[in-house]
């Protein structure tokens, strides 16, 4: 669905992306994990038009592509949920769902006087939230009066509403409690089941293991491994992330740093 080969991005002396490869399959939740500074956000920015790589190739549905900017990626069906600035707090839920894509009234009221068709937007927002099973009282409620989890749900639902190709989420559960995180994870599953693949950046290993079909492990600016959570333990995945273990071509693990591996409590298989 979305892939990259040999991406490079340098900021002066710092190489944020160092020859990274990436592959997102249709119908999957792909988690992207890695230590702080490994280059996950930079990789995602390159894949969503928010930064222009110095080198490398990106393909969408097999076609080579260069995004002119985030709006270009959005126009091609790639929606990104950022951890902050996800919603406009003082606006109501329906307005947030249609932010930047407002429906105008028909005729001169819309074309000349730019009046919004609030009724249609409310109806469509309600139908969409209901289809995602997001339970929110009133759509005219300002988003700032919602709980953190409900707010996140609105941001995720908005992305799901507009995404035709891919939904990308950078730490969507970082600030959420157990119940709220569960709701966002459910929503991610429903998006995937509706046929839109999801890229999930997360530091939360239990969430990653609960929801991801595959895990892209990022280390020192590039893809270190891609694993299936059913085939590895959390300790092994953390060890791959930190460089204590490496994955051999046959899929087994090899001890790269025996002290670090024994500290993590894992051995090669
Ligand atoms: N705009 C920038 N200018 C200079 N250096 C940058 C810039 N953006 C990222 N970097 C550097 O690139 C490296 C990768 O950063 P990035 O934000 O992609 O990491 P990350 O994996 O998302 O980390 P975290 O888990 O902490 O969010 C870091 O060393 C960072 O300091
Ligand atoms: Mg980051």
TrEMBL record:
Keyword ATP-binding applies: yes
Stored Gene3D superfamilies: P-loop containing nucleotide triphosphate hydrolases
Cross-referenced Pfam families: ABC_tran
ABC transporter domain boundaries: 2-245
Signal peptide: none
GO molecular function, one term: ATP hydrolysis activity
Keyword DNA-binding: no
Keyword annotations of the record: ATP-binding, Nucleotide-binding
Designated name of the protein: ATP-binding cassette domain-containing protein
Organism per entry: Streptomyces fagopyri
């Amino acid at each position: 669905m979305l892939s990259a080969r040999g991406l490079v991005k340098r900021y002066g002396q710092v190489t944020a992306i160092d020859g990274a490869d990436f592959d997102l399959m249709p119908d999957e939740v792909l988690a992207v994990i890695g230590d702080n500074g490994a280059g996950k956000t930079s990789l995602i920015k390159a894949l969503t038009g928010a930064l222009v790589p110095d080198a490398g190739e990106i393909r969408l549905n097999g076609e080579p592509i260069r995004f002119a900017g985030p709006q270009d990626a959005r126009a091609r069906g790639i929606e990104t949920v950022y951890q902050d600035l996800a919603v406009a707090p003082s606006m109501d839920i329906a307005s947030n769902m249609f932010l930047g894509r407002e429906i105008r009234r028909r005729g001169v009221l819309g074309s000349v006087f730019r009046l919004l068709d609030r009724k249609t937007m409310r109806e469509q927002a309600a139908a969409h939230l209901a289809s995602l099973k997001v339970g929110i009282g009133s759509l005219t409620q300002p988003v700032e009066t919602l709980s953190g989890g409900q707010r996140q749900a609105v941001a995720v639902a908005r992305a799901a509403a507009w995404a035709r190709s891919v939904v990308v989420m950078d730490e969507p559960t970082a600030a959420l409690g157990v119940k709220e995180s569960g709701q966002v994870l459910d929503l991610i599953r429903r998006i995937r089941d509706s046929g839109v693949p999801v890229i999930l950046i997360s530091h939360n290993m239990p969430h990653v293991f609960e929801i991801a079909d595959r895990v892209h492990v990022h280390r020192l600016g590039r893809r270190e491994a891609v694993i299936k959570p059913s085939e590895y333990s959390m300790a092994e995945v953390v060890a791959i992330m930190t460089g204590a273990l490496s994955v051999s071509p046959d899929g087994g693990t090899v001890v790269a740093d025996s002290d670090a591996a024994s500290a993590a409590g894992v051995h090669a298989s």
